[in-house]
Amino acid sequence: MPKPTPHPAHSPRQSVFPGRGSYREAARIGEVLRKETVGGMLLVALAAIAIVWANSPWAASYFAVRDFRIGYAPWHLELSLGGWAADGLLAIFFFLVGLELKREFVAGDLRQIRTAVVPIAAAVGGVAVPALIYLAVIGNDPGLRGGWAIPTATDIAFAVAVLALIGSHLPSPLRIFLLTLAVVDDLIAIGIIALFYTDTIDLLPLLFALVTIIVYGLIAQLSRRFFGLHPAAPWLILLPVGLVAWAFMHASGIHATIAGVLLGFTIPVLHHKSDRADSAGPGLAEQFEHRFRPLSAGFAVPLFAFFSAGVAVGGLDGFASALTDPLTVGIVAALVLGKPIGILTTTWLVSKTLRIRLDLALRWVDLTGVGLLAGIGFTVSLLVAELSFAPGSPEYDHAKVAVLAASIIAAGLAAIVLTVRNRGYRRISEQDTIDADGDGIPDVYQQADAGH
Predict the structure, then answer these.
(1) C-alpha to C-alpha distance for 176 and 40, rounded to whole angstroms
(2) pTM over 0.85, yes/no
(3) Closest to 33 measured CA to CA, from 158, 122, 189
(4) Is the CB of residue 258 less than 8 Å from the CB of residue 194?
(5) Burial 126-163 (b: 16+ CB within 10 A, else e)
(6) Pick from 174, 175, 158: which is nearest to 29 by CA?
(7) Structural domain of residue 351, as residue ranges?
(8) Which of 14, 340, 341, 441 has the most CB atoms less than 10 A away?
(9) CATH of the domain at 167
(10) pLDDT tens by residue, 392-403
């Protein structure tokens, strides 16, 4: 059998970005993105239903459902259904963010400086530049400054749903770069929420929350020793402990989703040194991701989108008023322009400074497409919008209209750029699946390892 044509990027990985990682990691991320694709389509569908319902003759019933309160008030847990979605269901999403961060630091692109520096810099640029553009557009209006963090997030589920809808064959290195970028982006957003969107902190519940999270982490770290590979045993203890930690964090005044991130970060992640199957079986991180990913992508995030995206725009006049509001213009400009500009600029500066070159199979227009995809803020942007402005205020509604409009525009522009390049992506994808020696691992990953 003839040998495959060498991939143009088969050179030492420390001088090339975006990196493709190991085959095991690439396969895992491919599976993650396939699950997020389904979730992204559900998210878009439920958000569309909410917008139509909220602007229909039956709008009152939508808001009655969203604002229906349930829970136990003495424990600070009497929330509206919309509040339960934002504080409770999104904690599942942020648990997976914490787990993904742990994976990236242990076994992914963030475990080594040479592979971490580009996506981290790109994420920082993709947060800072949109915030600066937003502040520049809204000017000196003190009532709008609190929304500066709205355009800083990336919605990976919505982004990969766009890739699926346009039939993109986005190469594995770009998919890994996009996911890593989004995960770091979410980490920054989590820090912003904790630091800038917490009005008061009750120290005693916070202390209890941190102690409970430490206990949770100790149980998780010791679970393999005491429970072996039994898939159900850790759940009987970890699930109730996690719920207690979430409740204490919620009572402390810090947004309860922060508990999800911290809990996810305590889960042990196995660092597989080989692309071969692990005879020891899946670790706790694999078990949790297998169970929680469908729940997050298929239920928690879409339901949050349903309760959060429903905004009564007040007909054509109200919609026109929202679009001309400096708040709306600032958010749209920040997401659609600021995200790709920030990501591309910082990536270019880091690559030139550290003499890291772009993979020869790719072009800078490909990173432009990824930057536009990152401009789809949606889930976390909607959450920050709810934290930035008082419910029912014009700013509250206009911010959500802006997030929706910006996400649609960014998705459309990304689709155009990536569709134009799709023929080239197909060739790269076909090249990356060649397995001439028939060992089950594409040769491109073994050649990259040999070059390294």
Answers:
(1) 17
(2) no
(3) 158
(4) yes
(5) bbbbbbebbbebbeeeeebebbbbbbbbbbbbbbbbbb
(6) 175
(7) 13-197+255-451
(8) 340
(9) 1.20.1530.10
(10) 888 888 999 999
